Amino acid sequence: MSENISRNFIEEIIDRDNEEGTYGGKVYTRFPPEPNGYLHIGHAKSICLNFGIAKEYGGMTNLRYDDTNPVKEDLEYVDSIEEDVRWLGFEWDKRLWASDYFDTMYKAAVELINKGLAYVDDQNADQIRESRGTLTEPGVESHCRNQSPEENLALFEQMRDGSFADGERTLRAKIDMASPNMNMRDPVIYRIAHTTHHNTGDKWCIYPMYDFAHPIEDAIEGVTHSICTLEFEDHRPLYNWVLENVGFWPNPPKQIEFARLNLTNTVMSKRLLKKLVDEGTVEGWDDPRMPTIAGIRRRGYTPEAVRDFCEQIGIAKSNSTIDVAMLEHCVRNDLQDKLESRHVIEDPIKVIITNYPEDKTEMIEIENNRNVPELGTRQIPFSREIWIDGADFMEVPVKKYFRLFPGNEVRVKGAYFIKCNEVIKNEDGSIKELHCTYDPASKGGNSPDGRKVKGTIHFVDAKTAVKILVRNYDYLYIDDEEGNKVLNPDSAPEKWCYAEPSLGEAKPGERFQFFRHGYYVADSKLTTEDQKVFNKIVGLKSSFKPGK
Ligand code: ATP
Ligand code: MG
Questions:
Q1: Closest Cα to atom 23 of ligand 1
Q2: Which of 96, 196, 278, 358 could form a disulfide with 64 if both were Cys (CB 3.0 to 4.6 A apart)?
Q3: What integer is the mean pLDDT of 251-259?
Q4: Among 17-21, 246-250, 481-485, which stretch is predicted with the lowest mean pLDDT?
């Protein structure tokens, strides 16, 4: 680790631990998703951080499902989580379930009871909430608070053997009802839930609360640095309290908080994303507009780009919202020198080159990537009838319009100069076709006599063109001036386009630059032998300035 590279605050903490020998030079992290939805780009930040830090220090990372809450979890999500972590380029050392530790957690609770540090309360959730006090007033102690350990043990056993209904009793840590930190005012650490658990079945009808379970999970696994998001900062004293008082572990882990990722033009909570899926607002968790990892993968983003983004945004200690344009910048940056370009025509207009031989087709050589000569060239057909982009013709040109208009000459990329002589209309007044003439001496698109053309347009040969469906995605949400997220009513516009013949062979997941239009990927689900569907990954240019 070179000294002149600036360290983030988490690396500084680890460096100090290593200097002081706190964990014997060991770095062990974990990524602990609750399997209640698909992972999103916010999770990607946490994954890159946890796995990245361990990798940097030669340490290890566990994938641990936080399945202590029996009602919300669904095994469908487990497969997707693993696919997503691997897609991002990481491999866990162990795959674990928090529910495998229920026995140890139970023992830990019993130990607290024996030490006089936990009691069974008969107040219901409302009563507990009402007696917690406020930031300015201390809470009121429960009438159960001073029961003897023997009484509490007996009651806790009754909780466990099913003698009580849901909500009738809780186990609370006995800490301090006057603590300025509300989380320390005798928090509930076990609750009753007569629910079958996917892993432990009906073995338990009591389940540990997150704040009690999480430090124990970390400690059992030998985690050294337990990295979580900022909203857990106020929970850290409780995390430490549990580990100090359970006392099974000589060298307990350390909780470190960082700011969660928020992005413009999207929402980032599994609950809200699930709602979009359940209500049919999107096609599914992997809809290419979704900020889920499955969605951005299908959208054509690369793991390299996502990792670069996570690196660029860095680790902060205060929450902020990142412009989604920065993510797009990383995607574009990754793709621009990797992809070959293809000609695709949107809003096509037919051009008839009236002086070009009827039965002739010639092959035109086009470079695959203007910036990367090593990517070579390809040959595409050209003949008397071609398609050009709707945006490349104006019957009445606006000022500074250099592309095709009546009387104007342009370069057809790699082919010839053509001049528009006549606009042929349909009965309804729409354009049927353009009649143009070409200059045979301008072959290759080079001026024969020094005369200049200002515009270059691209084309697709009409005889051999293939039809493709193009989905020019826009943001799922628009952020209004008050900072509210408003659903974009037109976030998935579709268009049939004409493409050069090679795109008829595109394989699911293959990416290209569509000349002038942007970066596209053949949709992994909808692309078949006969039907080619392309998703817009990102446009060619952006207003985003790196380093701003
Ligand atoms: P959500 O509210 O989207 O459901 P969560 O925090 O409840 O998120 P978990 O499955 O519990 O989701 O999270 C697994 C890990 O990912 C946690 O360590 C959590 O802190 C982290 N994480 C979740 N969302 C973000 C985010 N937006 N930015 C950074 N880390 C996140
Ligand atoms: Mg959660």
A1: 43
A2: 96
A3: 96
A4: 481-485
Burial class (CB in 10 A: 0-12, 13-18, 19+), 529: exposed
Please indicate whether residue 270, judged by its CB atom, sits closer than 6 Å to ligand 1.
yes
At residue 193, the 3 state secondary structure works out as coil
Give yes or no for residue 33 CB within 6 A of ligand 1: yes
Contact 273, 37 (CB under 8 A): yes
Assess whether the C-beta atom of 266 lies below 6 angstroms from ligand 1: no
Q: Is the CB of 42 under 6 A from ligand 1?
A: yes
Cα dist from 227 to 14, 48, 64, 404, whole Å: 12, 12, 13, 58
Indicate which ligand has the atom closest to the C-alpha of 214.
Answer: 1
> Which ligand 1 atom sits nearest the alpha carbon of residue 45?
29
Q: Reply yes or no on whether the pLDDT at 543 is more than 80.
A: no
Q: Provide DSSP, 368-408.
A: S-TT-GGG-EEEEEEESEEEE-GGGB-SSPPTT--SB-TT-
Cβ 109 vs Cβ 206: under 8 Å = no
The yes-or-no verdict on residue 484 having pLDDT over 60 is yes
Angstrom distance (rounded) from CA 337 to CA 130? 61
Which segments of 250-367 are extended strands (E)?
Answer: 254-258, 261-263, 320-322, 341-342, 344-345, 349-353, 361-367
Whole-number Å distance between alpha carbons of 12 and 545 = 29
Report the length, in residues, of the chain. 548
Measured CA to CA, the distance from residue 468 to residue 273 in angstroms comes to 30
- The predicted pLDDT at position 2 comes to 42
- pTM, whole model, 2 decimals? 0.94
Distance from residue 74's CA to the centre of ligand 2 (Å): 13
Q: What is the mean pLDDT of residues 235-252?
A: 95
374 confidence band (pLDDT: 50, 70, 90): very high
Atom of ligand 1 minimally distant from the CA of 261: 28
Does residue 516 contact residue 342 with C-beta atoms inside 8 Å? no
Q: Max alpha carbon distance in the chain (Å)?
A: 104
Residue 60: the pLDDT is 98
Q: Which ligand lies nearest to the CA atom of residue 233 in the structure?
A: 1
Residues 6+ apart with CB under 8 A from 237: 181, 183, 184
Q: Is the pLDDT of residue 51 over 80?
A: yes
Question: Is 122 buried (19+), middle (13-18) or exposed (0-12) by CB count in 10 A?
Answer: middle
